[in-house]
Amino acid sequence: MRRGRAVAAVAAVLAVTAGTIAVTQLGGGGTESAGAKNSALPPATAPVERGDLHDSAQADGTLGYDKQRKVNAGASGTLTWTPRPGSTVKRNERLYEIDGRAVRLMYGSGPMYRTLKPGDKGRDVEQLERNLAALGYTGFTPDTEYTELTAAAVKRWQKAQGGKQTGKVGPQDIAFAPGKVRIKSVETAVGDLAQPGAPVLTTTGSERIVTFQLDVSESQLAKAGTEVTVELPDGTSAPGTVSSVGRTAKPGNDPQEDSPKVTLTVSFDRPDKVGGFDQSPVTVNLTGETRKDVLTVPVNALLALPGGGFGVQVVRGGAVREVKVELGMFADGRVEVSGGGLREGMKVGVPKI
User: 84, 276, 340, 347: which could join 280 in a potential S-S bond, CB 3.0 to 4.6 Å?
Assistant: First the structure.
């Protein structure tokens, strides 16, 4: 992750104090009195500024599609047709064919796990009946009971598809998904033998999303509902919102060096306007906390004090005094400071640019 926060900033300060700006030890490790002077002027100065400080960050993400899932074969036989990757399949359209028999998509959150017939009851019955009604095959009340009226509607549906009119329907006929699906990849090639439960397709939803990771220690930067901007592969940017934050932290690529990370998902405000290939790299810009009306100095103005803590060199009238400061937020190359009698407009020492 690329960011201007405390850990990276303090590391930069230590590098600076190692050789760029000489550190003068304060008497007793405390704040030097206002009259104490140091004739060694720093190579350059920068003003103490007052204003708002925004805690922002960037993360590498991946542009893809939502709701990825596997579609498993509902019967055994030879796979005779599959859809083209990248295509979209809607209600009652073919997902795949086995032995020339189409398995069609119906909408529902539960799986199609059995052959339904008169007398059966359950949520899967209601899912089927609601699909039949949506397709115009009515004459029954959509509920959890498969009646002879349901079977009659199924026969009319089977006739329209050119199949046998059995009044029964099972996994060899339909598969459920929450809505229309996009074909991401074909897992079993046409001509190969399909087995019940073996993957045939990988599908996604049609909505564009971005996934990215944050260190657990940085996860407060992006909670659900956080607004972000995504830099897309074509050079444009699009606004979005963090829609979900993973509940499980996983080790990074190098467990010895990387801290545990959580995965976050971004949904776009206008997903229909977002183009680009599946799995394209993108950059997620996050804006976290804002500190109002605070004093700040450049990060490289900080000195690591021998007695602990940090200070700055205040330059005035050709003389230098060093004061100890308390640090707040780090962002955009600056750090919030307080204490030491600092005021807006004062000059502090920095390395020569």
Answer: 276
